């Protein structure tokens, strides 16, 4: 029996540094200070800056970019970070807007990153639905990711997904996961009549669907359009009998997870 390990450093909003298999992966980089971020005629309001500056986090081996079209997932400072990282995995839409900075990873397609130990980390693109059914044309294309490799835990990074049907499809196709990094917060804006990301109750249900032994929530605070936060996550996981699976770090803190492997 060996112990497969992963470390997640929560940096704020959707941004975390995931260390797995000797590689450093950065999720949705957002390093701007608090302030207003225009989105067409509307604006999103950021209430807290990152727990660490980008130059304190870099270098990284890859960026897992769920989408580029919303400033709470990729802000001005985050766009600069993309140029400093050798691989940025995202959607075809992001490639159209950002050019060759982005490598497209379609749903269910995989790419492999060499690991320092001689193995590989396989990264698979998976679906994400950023809002209620029928809003895809309003919110744009989004993706999630599954990470796995020999001797490593299987990790699901949801991106901005609000659909449990999507979670079920991922679980059915790729099997259970050891660690789920779930974007939560029940984000709401006038663009859609319903939450744009997982509610706390749905995050707990997604945990059950995925069979995840460990959950690290992201993207549930630091922006005014979130309607649920840390307290509702704690309550929802307790009500579902899953409190022992929830890891809820403060900004800047690391979560170190070891998973038994045969």
Can you characterise this structure?
It is a single chain. This protein has helices spanning 54-57, 76-82, 92-98, 136-139, 164-174, 200-210, 230-239; strands at residues 2-12, 15-20, 23-27, 35-39, 42-46, 62-64, 88-90, 103-104, 110-114, 120-127, 143-148, 155-157, 179-183, 214-218, 254-261. The protein contains seven helices and 15 strands. It has a single domain (2-261), classed as Ribonuclease Z/Hydroxyacylglutathione hydrolase-like (Metallo-beta-lactamase, Chain A). It is of the alpha/beta class and 262 residues long.
Query: What proportion of the residues form beta strands (DSSP E)?
Result: 25-35%
The protein's oligomeric status is: single chain
Report the helical percentage: 10-25%
Number of strands: 15
Task: Label the CATH architecture.
Answer: 4-Layer Sandwich
Mean pLDDT: 95
Biggest sheet layout: 7 strands, mixed
Tally of distinct domains: 1
The low-confidence parts are: none
Please write the CATH class name: Alpha Beta
- Shape, per Cα inertia axes: globular
Please work out how many helical segments DSSP would assign.
Answer: 7
The termini sit apart by: 5 Å
Q: Look at the structure and name the CATH superfamily.
A: Ribonuclease Z/Hydroxyacylglutathione hydrolase-like
Return Rg in Å. Answer: 17 Å
What class, by secondary structure content? Answer: alpha/beta
